[in-house]
Design goal:
4 strands, 4-stranded parallel beta sheet, globular
């Protein structure tokens, strides 16, 4: 599974989100790879991703992408990320 962590500049907060998404995947027992991107390159990167993790503001800017977009309220809350990823994975089947 490939996840994409997106923030406005592609550094800083996306690295925090990446690290916590990796922890969430580990908790869920899911093998996956998490990459980071800024909003400018996110649309292109989302083409090869299964799931995009980002804020609500940036989710609107992403527009229509083939990946599932998961809005994360707190990039540092591993429990929130785990719960939202779990629900998305269950919905994907």
């Amino acid at each position: 599974m490939k996840l994409l962590a997106v923030c406005g500049m592609g550094i800083g907060t996306s690295i925090i989100l990446k690290m916590n998404a990796e922890k969430a995947l580990e908790r869920l027992g899911v093998d996956g790879e998490v990459e980071v991107a800024d909003i400018g390159s996110a649309r292109g990167a989302a083409v090869t991703a299964d799931v995009v993790l980002t804020s609500s503001e940036l989710a609107e800017e992403l527009g229509d992408v083939p990946a599932d977009v998961v809005v994360v309220d707190s990039f540092v809350d591993v429990d929130e990320i785990t719960g939202k990823l779990s629900a998305t994975l269950q919905a994907r089947g």
